[in-house]
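Figure 3 (text version): structure tokens given as input.
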């Protein structure tokens, strides 16, 4: 007596297992990446549902490294020089994604090693800040490209993100605010011109 009743049943079972194995092997890596748990202490990520955000596609661009992100920014600069704005936008969006992921991962590592090995925690925290700075630089360049294409509706949200991340007192935050002023989105200059400063009361 056969274990599964008939040879036909065994053949169907083997075929089903083969199809299942093939489906797992063909599953995109991004599906597994989405299963990673998130941390409440993580830096504010880029919204993956935002249509202006693209994930790195080619193998070199997908490497999570500051060098990979900087290479994408260099390619974007060349695309802008050639007036290939669609390609420049694509490369800058990918650079933002790389630097944002790096910042989040380094910050997670810093939190994991805090109180255990402060030297490692401080190193990872510094890398998180450097990556966040490069992300904001890429975001600023992307906003400029959108402005050059007369797309203020795409530039304004990016400029606001930079100000929130950098704060208005820092150089990049002030440059982003100046862009908002030139676009007419805000009407109060910052820093205020000296002529607008209140004069000292007479003695």
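Below: residues designed for each position.
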């Amino acid at each position: 007596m056969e274990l599964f009743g008939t040879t036909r049943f065994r053949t169907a079972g083997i075929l089903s297992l083969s199809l299942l194995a093939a489906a797992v092997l063909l599953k995109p890596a991004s599906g597994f990446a989405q299963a990673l748990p998130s941390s409440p202490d993580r830096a504010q990520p880029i919204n993956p549902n935002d249509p202006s955000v693209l994930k790195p596609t080619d193998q070199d661009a997908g490497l999570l490294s500051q060098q990979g992100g900087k290479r994408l920014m260099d390619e974007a600069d060349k695309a802008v020089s050639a007036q290939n704005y669609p390609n420049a936008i694509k490369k800058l969006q990918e650079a933002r994604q790389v630097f944002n992921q790096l910042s989040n991962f380094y910050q997670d590592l810093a939190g994991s090693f805090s109180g255990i090995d402060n030297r490692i925690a401080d190193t990872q925290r510094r890398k998180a800040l450097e990556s966040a700075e490069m992300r904001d630089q890429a975001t600023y360049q992307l906003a400029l490209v959108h402005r050059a294409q007369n797309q203020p509706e795409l530039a304004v949200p990016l400029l606001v993100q930079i100000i929130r991340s950098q704060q208005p007192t820092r150089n990049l935050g002030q440059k982003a605010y100046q862009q908002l002023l030139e676009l007419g989105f805000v009407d109060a200059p910052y820093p205020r011109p000296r002529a607008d400063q209140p004069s000292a009361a007479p003695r």
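Residues 1-45, 56-62, 199-203 have pLDDT under 50 and may be disordered.
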